[in-house]
Design goal:
Layout (H helix, E strand, L loop, with lengths): L3 H22 L3 H13 L3 H13 L5 H13 L3 H11 L6 H14 L11 H12 L2 H21 L7 H31 E6 L3 E5 L8 E6 L3 E5 H4 L5 E6 L4 E5 L3 E3 L1
Antiparallel strand pairs: 1-4, 1-7, 2-3, 4-5, 5-6
Length: about 260
Amino acid sequence: MLTGNHRIYILLTFLLCCTLLAAYGQQSPQATFDQANTELKSGNYSEALSLYKSLEDQKNHSGALFLNMGIAYQRIDSLGMSKFYLLKALRFEETENQASKALKYVESQFSRQSAVLPKFPWDVATDWLRHNIGASNILLIGIILLNLGMLTFVSRWFINWYPHYLRISGLSTIIISLLLIACGFYTDYVSNRYSKAVMVTEEVPVVERPKKEAPLVSQAFEGYTFTVDHYRSRKNEYWSYVRMSNGLYGWIPNSEIRIL
């Protein structure tokens, strides 16, 4: 007859075996990525993409994953999706050069090219800060400088050496820190409100209102890029309010684009 201790031992053994079987049966992300790369090299692009997508769904993101997905989509002539993933790969330092070269090739394959207006200097600066430093880091630097500036300014009351220098230094640091904090809040606001998007279907009208029968603003084609305004878009579940690269504004169905 089994005692209580024996029952507990059997139960723990059973649970351990189930855990080991589950872990053994689940393929590691690296093994899945290697298998997908093998399928890609063999020309089995659909199978490779299926495996890559499973990694993407599991949040196993990397520059190499997005680069290979961009290449696979280019091979099946889905150039909009290829551009989307190559732009994502471009954000990773390890794949930046390869993605840039592949992106130039994909761009040359589009049958329609959109006019592109140059960005305003502050938009260029904000994009650089978003992708290279981040709003939270800017805020952190600003707060640290603010404390240092206040400490320097107050120290002139206790230190007799160069009080004028300490006053000027403290005020200058405080002003710079406040500018950085304001810049951090603005960068965070821009990051939350706007995103870049790529059109992945062949052709679609951009319209004045979020309705199919609304007046036409412009015609968009595969590979066109947009700036999505999430604040304007959130009241319409199936539509996005966008700024086209030629400066025009309008609405486009969500199913036609992929947001970066």
